[in-house]
Design brief:
The protein is of the alpha+beta class. It folds into three domains: about 70 residues; about 90 residues, Beta Barrel (Elongation Factor Tu (Ef-tu), domain 3); about 120 residues, no CATH class. The strands form two sheets. A six-stranded antiparallel barrel has the order 1-8-11-10-9-12. A four-stranded antiparallel beta sheet has the order 5-4-2-7, with no helix packed on it. The radius of gyration is 41 Å and the shape is flat. About 15% of the residues are buried.
Length: about 300
């Protein structure tokens, strides 16, 4: 009986300790849950505060811009504009040959299709003549085999082979003609010679630069404007540009706006075009852009 009572007491003691341990674990879990709620709430508050700070910063920048516009202050300080050609290219040699003639000089105008450079291509010309002669020979053989086939004097295979030889001759002639066409460099568009990079009677290799050209039929203009102008400046917006070289002011219009802002300079690129025709303008001229946002 005494042993039973002693065992019961021990069991009750262990049960009490187990219950106390469960209560302690429950309290710890509740405290961790409360701590997690506090931490998450803190993150939410910090994120909201940062978002509010960013909104306030943008609002202040916009308000600053609007105040300057209302006062009529100049937003055009140090907005430089550079005239660039509509198109430009460096033409390279497509053959390894000796230059025969370069008919145009630096600064000369040329039209689309004009020969800008010609090479001595006697070997390629002879290759074309050889290919044409072989094609003629194959054609005669094929015509003869067609007549013989009607008399059953040649097999179908012989006739098919002679026909394939004709097709091979056509391909060789086309290849020789394509190679010979590389012996002249035609102008890809109307333009001017910027720089001559090779001389007559020089031997050049494939890929060697020959001429630098540009299309000055119309000039474009590049500007880098402050990023805070993004909401103010639109395509087709008109402005003025005062060029240093001519001392004149010209009307211009925005044609393209870059979709990216440079984070270092906080600017974005704008492409524009001067309205009207002005013979005195040249690529490389620069000046100051004048935007009348306050008007």
């Amino acid at each position: 009986m005494a042993l039973f009572i002693l065992g019961t007491r021990r069991f009750a003691s262990r049960a009490e300790r187990f219950q106390n341990a469960n209560m302690r674990r429950t309290r710890i879990i509740n405290r961790l849950h409360q701590l997690a709620v506090v931490v998450i709430s803190g993150f939410v508050l910090v994120s909201a505060a940062r978002a509010q700070e960013a909104n306030i910063s943008r609002s202040l920048d916009q308000l600053d811009t609007e105040l300057q516009l209302m006062r009529g202050d100049s937003l055009n300080n140090d907005i430089r504009a550079l005239l660039i050609p509509y198109r430009e290219a460096t033409l390279s040699s497509l053959v390894a040959a000796r230059i025969s003639t370069i008919p145009f000089k630096q600064g000369d105008h040329f039209n689309k299709g004009d020969t800008l450079v010609s090479f001595e291509c006697g070997v390629l010309s002879a290759s074309l003549q050889t290919a044409q002669a072989k094609r003629k020979q194959h054609r005669l053989t094929y015509d003869a085999n067609q007549e013989l086939r009607q008399q059953d004097a040649v097999s179908k295979l012989e006739l098919a082979l002679s026909e394939a030889k004709v097709e091979e001759g056509n391909a060789e002639v086309a290849l020789a003609q394509a190679q010979l066409q590389k012996c002249t460099v035609p102008a890809p568009y109307n333009g001017r010679i910027v720089k001559i990079l090779a001389n007559e009677f020089e031997n050049v290799e494939v890929g060697d630069p020959l001429l630098s050209i540009l299309d000055d039929s119309k000039l474009e203009m590049t500007l880098h404007v402050p990023s805070r102008w993004l909401m103010l400046l639109n395509k087709d917006a008109k402005f003025q540009v005062a060029l240093d070289e001519t001392g004149k002011t010209y009307q211009a219009v925005v044609t393209r706006i870059s979709p990216r802002i440079d984070p270092a300079s906080r600017t974005f690129e704008v492409t524009a075009q001067i309205l009207g025709e002005h013979e005195e303008l040249m690529a490389g001229m620069s000046g100051s852009a004048i935007f009348g946002f306050h008007q």
